[in-house]
Amino acid sequence: MKCISETVDVVIAGGGTAGHIAALQAARAGVKxxxxxxxxxxxxTTTSGGVNMPNHFFSTxxxxxxxxxxxxxxxSKKIEGLPxxxxxxxxxxxxxxxxxxxNIPIYAAIAEEEAVKAGVNLHYHEFVADVKAVGNxxxxxxxxRGIKRLTRAREIxxxxxxxxxxxxxxLGVLHSKVPQPGTYQYKIENIEHEQIWEKEVQALYExxxxxxxxxxxxxxxxxMLPFKNYLDHGxxxxxxxxxxxxxxxxxxxxxxxxxxxxxxxxxxFVTSSIPGCERAVLxxxxxxxxxxxxxxxxxEYIVTKQDFMQATDFEDKVCNAFNYIDxxxxxxxxxxxxxxxxxxxxxxxFRALIPKGSSRITVAGRIVSAERVAFAGIxxxxxxMAMGQAMGAAAAxxxxxxxxxxxxxxxxxxxxxxxxxxxxx
Length: 425
Ligand SMILES: Cc1cc2nc3c(=O)[nH]c(=O)nc-3n(C[C@H](O)[C@H](O)[C@H](O)COP(=O)(O)OP(=O)(O)OC[C@H]3O[C@@H](n4cnc5c(N)ncnc54)[C@H](O)[C@@H]3O)c2cc1C
Prior knowledge:
Layout: E1 2-7, E2 10-13, H1 19-28, E3 33-37, E4 58-59, E5 62-63, H2 67-80, H3 104-117, E6 121-124, E7 126-134, E8 137-144, E9 147-153, E10 155-158, H4 164-169, E11 173-174, E12 182-189, H5 198-211, H6 227-232, E13 236-241, H7 249-273, E14 281-285, E15 296-297, H8 305-310, E16 317-320, E17 325-329, E18 333-337, E19 347-349, E20 361-363, H9 372-378, H10 381-401, H11 410-419
Parallel strand pairs: 1-9, 2-3, 2-10, 3-6, 10-20
Antiparallel strand pairs: 4-5, 7-8, 8-9, 11-15, 12-13, 12-14, 16-19, 17-18
Flavin-adenine dinucleotide binds at residues 13-19, 36-39, 44-46, 51, 53-55, 99, 127-128, 159-162, 164, 183, 238, 290-292, 365-366, 379-381, 384.
């Protein structure tokens, strides 16, 4: 095994939705930055996870998240040869369907190209295995196939989605009694849906569930939608795995096995039982089950439902968090609702990104410190990206000033992100 050591200013654990933006911001602000990413590319859930629908870049009133996230989005649209959607003319942003779709291969490649250009050291296929504070530095051990790396850094940003770094360090984490489900995504193509009638197909589906050919959760929203809805929507299924705990390898493996067994049952059912689908093909499946929530930080402040619903005007806000509350439950399926007034613009306070009682470490993404319901609103991709940019800025400023990130003012963080295109908050 190769043993390698590297010294940087800022190390980012997880180059996912929040992490890749954090890395770009820190590096572009002039500090030496490394990313340790267990997967194969930047973007995490947004790219390799197949959830390529960031929301929200805009609210009813105008832009709410821009900066590096918007830059990558618009660059990838340009390469695709597609226009940037005119948000003033699209369906009202209050509707949950207000997504900005990205092309996964192009976006992942652009993000990587920009990271390399900015001088970010990218380490794919490595996971953070240990973290220690030694004097005023972190020593992060990561393991990959044939590699053991020791990275020394002044600041660390936990963007793992599961609070891996916080859990290694024994810092506080929140875990809901009933977390939102994990999801396994795949797509069955060549469904000739024009031959299918809703009632008939629903009867076939119900019969299959009754005789055990299918299980109820194999179709993602059995309590909310007719089965035909699935067929009508291009055969894309995100089957919900309610007891998935993808925060460690065992749980992730179990969720993947469950997801793929469901996928296979569905494919066999669709091709053998639904008229018109005999030649349907299964070509696309995403590599792993995704998590909505596992462990999130106990921060210096925990954002409450009321904060989110009434858009508390935090003194230390660092980015906007415009989104609907997106709660999934076994009983209801998907329970989505908006802020009390659509004119409100919730924000994320810096304290919710500083683990309680810590120094020189911040978090970004779906491990933001928030109560369950508030969290279901804040975890949207554009907000995760904006948190990433803010914490990349905080880490860079801390390194330059020779202090801990927690001692940087929210005003200075926002000012730096605005220099890099972000929306002032
Ligand atoms: C099924 C589903 C549908 C969703 N739909 C939408 C939607 O339509 N629109 C929207 O805006 N949001 C949506 N969301 C929410 C949003 O996608 C997530 O909240 C967000 O992407 C989380 O970003 P993140 O950076 O925190 O985590 P991730 O993007 O998951 O990134 C975490 C990264 O850390 C890496 N990692 C983990 N542990 C380690 C380790 N120990 N060492 C190194 N690397 C590690 C992972 O490989 C990953 O790349 C959805 C979420 C799910 C699960």
